[in-house]
Amino acid sequence: MKKAGLFFLVFSLLFPTQVFRVLASEPDTLVNIADVKVYARRSLYYQEDKKVIACDSSLVLPIGLEPLGEVLQRMAPVNLMQYGAQGSLATLSLRGSSSSQTQINWNGFPINSLTSGIADLSQLDAGMFEEILLIPGASGSLYGSGTFGGAINLDNRPVWEKKILTSVGLNGGSFGTLGGNILFQGGTDRFQNKSGFFLHNANNNFPYRDDYKPGDPTEISFHNRYQYIGFIQTFSARLTHGISLQTGFWYQKKRKEFPHVMGTYQPNYQEQRDSSLRVYLILGKRWLRSSLSVRGAWFRDNMWFMDKTSANAPDYSIDSRFRTIRFMSDVYFHHSVGKYWTLDGGFASSTAMAMVTDYDGTIHEYSIDLYAGSKYRHDRWTGSLTMRQNFNPYNNPLPQADAGIRYALQPDRTFLRFNVSTKYRLPTLNDKYWTPGGNPDLCPEHGWGITTGIDHRTNHQRDHHTPWMFRWQSDFFFNLLNDQIRWIPGQGYWYPENMNKVWTYGAENSLQSTWGKNHLTITCQLNYNFTISTVLEESGNKQFHYQNSYVPVHSASGIFRMDFRFLYAGIYENFTGARYTTPDNDPLYKLNPYTITDLVVGGKKNKGNWGMDLRFVVKNLFNTDYQVIHSYPMPGRAYYLKARFTFETKQPIY
Amino acid sequence: MKKNLLLFLLIISTSAFFYSCKMTSTHPADTGFLHGAYIVNEGTYNHNNGSITYIDLDSSYIINNIFNIINQRPLGDIVQSLTVAGDKGLIVVNHSAKVEVVDMQTFVSLGTITGCNYPRYALYLGNDNAYLTNGAFTGNVYVLDLKNLIITDSIVVGNGPETMVRYGDYVYVANSGGWTNDSTVSVIDITRNEVVKTIKTGDNPVAMAVDLDGYIWVLCKGKIVYDQNWNIVSETDSKLQKISPYNQEVEVSYVIGQKGDYFNPVRLTTDNMGELLYFVEHDGIYSMNIYASEVPKSPFISGSFYGLGIDPYNGLIYALNAGDFTSPGLLKRYYPNGRLLDTVSVGIAPNGIYFH
Questions:
Q1: Residues 6+ apart with CB under 8 A from B55
Q2: Tens of pLDDT, residues A544-571
Q3: pLDDT of A378-422, one tens digit each?
Q4: Which of A510, B77, B180, B254 is the most exposed place for a label (fewest CB within 10 A)?
Q5: How many Cα atoms are found within 13 Å in the side-chain-facing hemisphere of B43?
Q6: Rounded mean pLDDT of chain A?
C-alpha cells in the first residue's frame, strides 16, 4: 500500500431496509407491486447526479442483428472508431478520451481486454442484451479502472412474466451479409431463462473509390471476410426468504480477415481469430432494510493474430497468440438508515493470468478493491458520496471519490445535477510486460472530472390527454488526466512512459420529442456534442494545444420515426465533424466531416401467439464516401432485409 | 596539409555565410525542384501519410509534402527511398508496393510502377534502366524500364535486399535479411543482369557507401537471437566492413556499437570527398576516416538519429530525428565540424536525404 488513506465505512447491520426500483434515466422511485421487488445495480443507484443514456429499443431501430457500436451511435453522438466494414475492430470513446478509457461491463463485470485495455464492439450483437446504458463520465469510485470517458453497461435483465417467447431473426443483404439469431425466453414470475444463439457472416467485398491512387479508381475491397458465432445463456431465480440468483454463460468466436489500406497495390494476408468464454454468478439476499450481494465471474479470452507474405506461403510471418484468464468476485452490502439515508460498502477482488507470445513468461496479477458509499434523499434533494481504493502489489492508484447532487427544480419535470469525481486507469498488461519495452513500474493514469447538467421533461407517460412528450438534456463536462501512458521510440524498440497531461471539456445536448394520437406516433431525437481534447503538456518538452487525433470537435445525430398501426419508417442521421489524424493537426491529413443517413421501413403484425416484424434497411442512403480511420475505406450504400418471427405465450402480470 | 586546412576553413566560412539565413517555408520560385535536398519521410504504418520534403539549396526554402501538394493525392504508406534517375525521380513506397515516378523539375507524377510486393531501394543504371530491391524474405532485384514504367526482369539475390551501390559494371546488393537473417552481399554484373558472386559479410548487411578509392564499405547491423519466451539467447556484433572492388572480398572488418544496446545501425554515408565515413549508432553520429585503423569510441555528434546525409556541395551534415514516429520529425543541419547550424520540422519518420 503506497498511497495514504484507507477509506472504509463500517458495515451497518441490523437496520431496516428500503427497497428501490431504479430506471436507467428516471428518478428514483419506490415501487411496490405485490411481492415484486427489484434491486438496482449499485453503480446505477448512484447515477442520479450524472447523465445516463438508455437504449430505447423501440426507437433505436433496427436493433438486434446489429453491431453494438452502430446502435450506440444512434443513441448518442459517441465517437465510434471503426477500422473498416462489418466485423472490423470497433472501439468507442466518450468525451474526447481514448478507447481504453471507456469501461464496458457485462452484468457488472468489465469485458475490456486485459492486454490492450479496449473492448471490440464488433463482437457484440445488440440483441444479446435487455438493457444497454451509456454513462459518460462514470467515476472511478463506482466502476474502478478505466472510466475517464465513461462506462457502458450491457445487462441481461429478467422479465418476470409467465411466458414463453421464441424468436428467430434473419438478416441478409449487400456484400455477402447473412446472419441470424434464435432466442428462447421462458419462465414464471420466479424463474426465468433466456438463451440466444447468434451468427453473422459478411464478405465485405464492397466497392470504394481509392483516391490514393492516380485517377481515383474504383476498387473492390478484398480479403475482408468476417464470421461470428455466439451463444448467450442467462438464468434468474427469485427464491424464498428473499434470496435471488442470476447466472450467465457467454461464448463467442470471431474470425476476421484484414484488407489492405487504400493506395496499396499488394494484397494483405493478415487475419485475426478471437474467442471468449464468460461465466458469472450473482447471489442476493434481502432483508427489510438491508441487502447482500455476492458476485463472481470467470472470463477467458483468446486472440490469435497471423500474417503471411503470400497466400501460398507455408508459414506465418507473424504468429502472435494471446490468452488471458481472470476471476473476479465482489461482496456488497447495502443498508437503509432511517428515512433518508442509505449506506453501503463492499470489497472486490480480481485475479488475472496472461499467456502471450510477446511476454516474458506467464503473467499473474491480482488486486483488491474496498469501496463504500452513502446516499441522501429528501424532498427535492438527492446527494451521494462514494469512495474506493484499489490495492495491488505493483503501483496503487490514488484513493477515488465521487460526490454529486441532484435537485428537482420542478418535481417530475426539471432536474439539475452536479458531480465531481476522480478517475484512474491501471497500466495494461501490454504496457507492463510487452517484450521488449514493457515497463512494470508504470504509474496508473489519474485525474478528475466535473460534470453538470439539466434534464427537463414533460409528461413522461403518453396518454390520450397528453399526446405530446418532450425531453431536453444538456450537460457540460471538464476532465483532467495526468500521467497519460504513451509509447515512444527508444534505442531499438518502443517503450511506454507516463508522459502527458490531457484535458478535455465540452457539452452534450439532446432533445427528444414524441407525439401520438389515434394510431399515429411521431418521434424525433436530436443529439449534439462539442468536445475539445488536447494534450496540455509533455514531460520535459514544450506544450501542445492541438486537438487529439480522431476526436471530432463537433458531432451530432438525429432520428425521425413514424409509427402508424403496423407500419413504421425511420430516418437515422449521424454527423461526424472533421478529425485530425496527426498530433500536430496537419491539415493535409485531416479527415473530412461526413454525414451518414440510414433509412428503415417496415411493418409488424401479431396474430394470436404469432408475430412477425419485417423491415427493409438502406444504410448510407446517399452513398457517402468517408473514412473513419485514415486510409481505411468504408462501404457505400448497402441494402438489407431483416425479419423476426416470434411465438409467445403469455399470462398477464398480476 | 596546411593548404588543405586553409581550403577547408574557406569552405566552412563560405558555407556558414551562405547558410546563415534560416530555412523558410515560402512559395517556391519558378525554377522548379531540380536542385535541392529531398527528405524521405516514411510516415506512420497503415496511415498513408508518407511524404517528401523538398529543400531548395539555392534559396533555402523548404516545402513539406511536396508530392501531395503538386499531385493532389497522398504519396502512400511507408515511403522508403528516393532515387534520381536522369530527369526522373523514383520514389519507392514500401507498404503501398509501388514506385512513384515523378518529373524532377515539376514533381508531377509520370506514372506508377507496380508488380513488386516489398520494394525498398532503387539504383539508376542509365539509359532509362534501373534496379529495384524487393522482398521481406527471399529477395529479388527487379530490372525497371523507366520509359514504359514496367518491370522487365528479376534477379534472385539474398534475403531482404536493401541498398545498392555501383562500381564500374558491378552493382553490390546488401542482403539485410529483411524479416529473417542473411550475411551476404550479392554482386550483379549489369551487362548480364546476373549475380556473379556472393560475398560473405557480417550479419545482416544493410547500408553501403563507396569511398574515394573505390572500396565498398558495408554496415552490418548484427542480429539478436531470441528463445521462444523472447529472452536473448545470443547476439552478434554490428560491423563496418570494407570490400575490395578488385577481388570482391572483405579486406577489413571493424566491430561497432556494443552488445545489449538493442540498436541496429542502418545508416552509412560518406562525405563529398569520399574520405570520411559517417554512420549512425545508438548514441549519435560517428565519423571515421577511411584510412583509420580503428573505429572511434565516441560519437562525432551526440543524439538520437534515424537518417543521415551529407551535402555534396558544401559538406553540411543533415541529421534526421524521427521523434515518436507519429509526429513530424526534425532535420538538424550541422557544419562539418559538428556545430549545429539549424533545426527545422519535416515529415513523419524521416529516414533519408538525397541531393540533386
A1: B23, B36, B37, B38, B39, B61, B62, B63, B331
A2: 578 998 999 999 999 999 999 999 999 9
A3: 899 999 999 999 999 988 889 999 999 999 998 888 999 999 999
A4: B180
A5: 30
A6: 85
Buried b or exposed e, range B116-154, using 16+ CB within 10 angstroms: bbbbbbbbbbeeebbbbbbbbbbbbbbbbebeebebeee
Residue burial B76-91, b: 16+ Cβ < 10 Å; e: rest: bbbbbbbbbbeebbbb
The three cell numbers of residue A607 are 396474430
Helices (H), A37-180: 42-45, 68-75, 140-143
Strands A131-136 vs A290-307: parallel, antiparallel or unpaired: unpaired
What phi and psi, each to the nearest 5 degrees, are found at residue B68? -60, -40
Strand ranges in B137-183 using DSSP code E only, listed in sequence order = 138-145, 150-159, 161-167, 170-175
Chain position carrying cell 542482403: B175
Residue A434: closest CA among chain B residues belongs to which residue? Answer: B230
What angle is formed at CA A149 by the lines to CA A9 and CA A507, rounded to 5 degrees? 110
DSSP, residue by residue, A151-167: EEEEE------SEEEEE
Instruction: Find chain B residues with C-beta within 8 A of A214's C-beta.
Output: 71, 73, 109, 111-112
Helix ranges (H only) for chain B are: 2-18, 66-71
Of A400, A294, A301, the closest CA to residue A353 belongs to A301
| Chain A contact set for B328 (CB, 8 A) | 582, 584, 586
A141 three-state secondary structure: helix
8 A C-beta contact, residue A198 and residue A231: yes
Q: b/e map of B16-51 (b: 16 or more CB within 10 Å)?
A: eeebeeebeeeebeeeebeebbbbbbbbbbbbbbbb
CB A437 within 8 A of CB A496: yes
Lowest mean pLDDT among A28-32, A463-467, B47-51, B102-106: A28-32
pLDDT digits (tens, 9 = 90+) for B246-287: 999 999 999 887 666 666 788 999 988 899 999 998 889 999
Cross-chain CB nearest to B65 (options A581, A584, A588): A588
Q: Which three cell numbers stand for residue A316?
A: 506465418
ipTM above 0.90, yes or no: no
Beta-carbon contacts of A106 under 8 Å, excluding residues fewer than 6 positions away, are A154, A155, A248, A250, A278, A280
How many of the other CB atoms lie within 10 Å of CB of A620?
A: 21
Q: Among all residues of chain B, which has the CA nearest to that of A627?
A: B47
Cell of residue A303, nine digits:
486472440
Residue A446 Cα distances to A147, A398, A424, angstroms: 10, 7, 4
Which of 134-153 (B) contact A at CB < 8 A? Answer: 136-137
Q: Is the peptide bond before A62 cis (omega within 30 degrees of 0)?
A: yes
* Local structure of A258: helix, strand or coil: coil
Q: Is residue A141 within 8 Å of A388, Cβ to Cβ?
A: yes
Beta bridge partners of B307: B320
Across the strands, what pairs with A330? A295, A348
CA atoms within 13 A on the CB side of B181: 14
- How long a stretch of residues is chain A? 654
Q: Which three cell numbers stand for residue A34?
A: 405485490
Contacts of A486 in chain B (CB under 8 A): 324
Chain centroid to Cα A351, Å, comes to 23
Residues A389, A396: Cα–Cα separation, whole Å: 8
What is the rounded CA–CA span in Å between residue A632 and residue A203? 16
Beta-carbon separation of B262 and A582 below 8 A: no
Cα dist. B136→A124, B116, B160 in Å?
Answer: 37, 11, 5
CA–CA gap between residue A106 and residue A153 (Å, rounded)? 6
